Amino acid sequence: MNKKTKKIIAREFLFILGTAILFLLVVFASYLNTEKQTKLETEIKNLTQSEKLPYRLYIYYYINDNILKGTGKKISNPERFISILNKDSLRSSLIYDDIKSKGSIDISKENFLKRISDDNESEKYYLSVLHPLENKLSRIKNSFLNEVDNIIVYGYSLLLIFFAIRYLIYMLFWSIKQLKE
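Predicted structure:
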């Protein structure tokens, strides 16, 4: 084997090695992204399952996690929901009746409505603690590294960029060189 052939083989090996390392970095970043997502989901779940939560916020998460869980529906705007609970006693009363009909509450309606009216902390707690965590989780979930299918596409893209397109360029230069001779 002559020296020129050895250089070509060495160059191709370095391209393959570089592509493999780049792909492994993408896979590792995806793994770290998934770990972050799991950690945030656990943290949010721990914060929202607590009885220490302000009462209106507790009701919001209780309804989403226990009553609406199997239906595919979810209350989408917690700020609006917790403010409506405080301002609209008729809706609060209807929510109590709905929760009571499911058999998941053991306090009286008057006590329920009193706890809702006494709660002054739900909005503050949501905006200062839970909302930033939910936004961060949303950004992580929408990240391009979040889906395994995307990772496979990135691997194919790297191969395409580093090999197929490069060889097309080599063929183009070779064709031009042959036409000039």
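Summary: The chain has a mean pLDDT of 81.
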